[in-house]
Design brief:
- This protein has 5 helices and 6 strands, in the order βββαβαβαβαα.
- The chain is of the alpha/beta class.
- The chain has a 6-stranded mixed β-sheet with strand order 1-2-3-4-5-6, sandwiched between helices.
- Helix 1 runs parallel beside helix 2.
């Protein structure tokens, strides 16, 4: 980890995350993703946001693989429901299919759902979607422990 005291950026091996106030975490994946990455990312987001609801813009343009342990860790971590929405950018057709299955597993695991999701070709489109979701859901500070409904959207 780097700059965690400043609460702005995180490096987890080849992966990079950046916090953008008030409630967006941008992640650029590079190469392979494993279970330790998710735990580190969740710990960091807890330090920044104190467990508040937030959005993730996940750039998968350079993501090669997601290990089974990473999928399991993300699906079973009790912090996953804190994510109000995830905008996935640059995912290949294979990664879109894999993420679709993963997100469906989360929906089954958490019943009423945890977060909205959509796929995009650019980060600008993803950010516009996040802003629209935030406007619909209200500020994170007003959301308390409410969960956003799973609401896949096109993108």
């Amino acid at each position: 980890m780097t700059n965690i005291a400043q609460g702005q950026t995180l490096e987890i091996g080849p992966h990079r995350a950046r916090f953008e106030p008030p409630d967006v975490i941008r992640v650029r994946w590079q190469g392979s993703m494993n279970a330790d990455v998710f735990d580190t990312l969740f710990q960091w987001s807890d330090e920044l946001l104190g467990g508040a609801r937030h959005f993730v813009i996940s750039d998968m343009t350079h993501l090669d693989t997601v290990s089974p342990s990473a999928r399991k860790a993300a699906a079973t971590d009790p912090r996953s429901p804190r994510i109000a929405g995830i905008a996935i950018v640059g995912a290949s057709a294979h990664m879109r299919a894999l993420m679709g299955l993963f997100l469906k597993a989360l929906e089954l695991m958490y019943g009423e759902g945890t977060f909205r999701r959509a796929f995009f070709d650019s980060e600008d489109e993803a950010l516009a979607w996040v802003n629209a979701q935030r406007a619909e859901l209200g500020p994170a500070s007003q959301a308390g422990s409410e969960r956003a409904r799973f609401a896949p959207t096109s993108g």
